[in-house]
From TrEMBL:
Its EC number is 2.3.2.26. It comes from the Eukaryota. Keywords: Transferase, Ubl conjugation pathway. E3 ubiquitin-protein ligase which accepts ubiquitin from an E2 ubiquitin-conjugating enzyme in the form of a thioester and then directly transfers the ubiquitin to targeted substrates. This is E3 ubiquitin-protein ligase. One of its GO terms (molecular function) is ubiquitin protein ligase activity. Transmembrane segments: none annotated. The gene is hectd1. SUPFAM superfamilies: ARM repeat. Pathway: Protein modification; protein ubiquitination. Pfam families: TPR_TRIP12_N. InterPro entries: ARM-like, ARM-type_fold, HECTD1/TRIP12-like, TPR_TRIP12_N. Belongs to the UPL family. K-HECT subfamily. Coiled coil: none annotated.
Length: 162
């Protein structure tokens, strides 16, 4: 934790055009490692506070030009925050359009593309965790229909390949 500057990490998360995507992806991977490997949640949350980092992560989902590989790591980071504290849910719900953006990724998934499918599966995990505290927000964003459609399409693809 000591060798990561949270301000730099946050700055890199907020990049997102052209070559900056590489920096954004590095920051996302670093954040995931910090969250996953932290042995002290309180210290981790002091270094990378949810009140600052979750809105930045949600804004990545609001960027329609963000590629699937960046979004998949973003969804993973959000999942790690939610795994540590269900209180993080309200920070995600508080970002206007964030839940809808997660749901929309299930609608546009390319099931034959591994990265796209991984992203969709990670989005389902995020929506599931959000539902433990804010199921109404997921329902209002059309989450139920999006998840059910994703499941239906996944089963069709699986059955077609058998």
């Amino acid at each position: 934790m000591a060798d990561v500057d949270p301000d730099t990490l946050l700055e890199w998360l907020q990049m997102g055009q052209g070559d900056e995507r590489d920096m954004q992806l590095i920051a996302l991977e670093q954040l995931c490692m910090l969250l996953l490997m932290s042995d002290n949640v309180d210290r981790c949350f002091e270094t990378c506070p949810p009140r600052t980092f979750l809105p930045a992560l949600c804004k990545i989902f609001l960027d329609e030009s963000a590629p699937d590989n960046v979004l998949e790591v973003t969804a993973r980071a959000i999942t790690y925050y939610l795994d540590v504290s269900a209180e993080c849910t309200r920070r995600i719900v508080g970002v206007d359009g964030a839940i809808k953006a997660l749901c929309n990724r299930l609608v546009v998934v390319e099931l034959n593309n591994r990265t796209s499918r991984d992203l969709a599966e990670q989005c389902v995990k995020v929506l599931e965790l959000i539902c433990t505290r804010e199921s109404g927000a997921v329902f209002e964003a059309g989450g139920l229909n999006c998840v059910l459609s994703f499941i239906r399409d996944s089963v069709k693809l699986r059955d077609a390949s058998c």
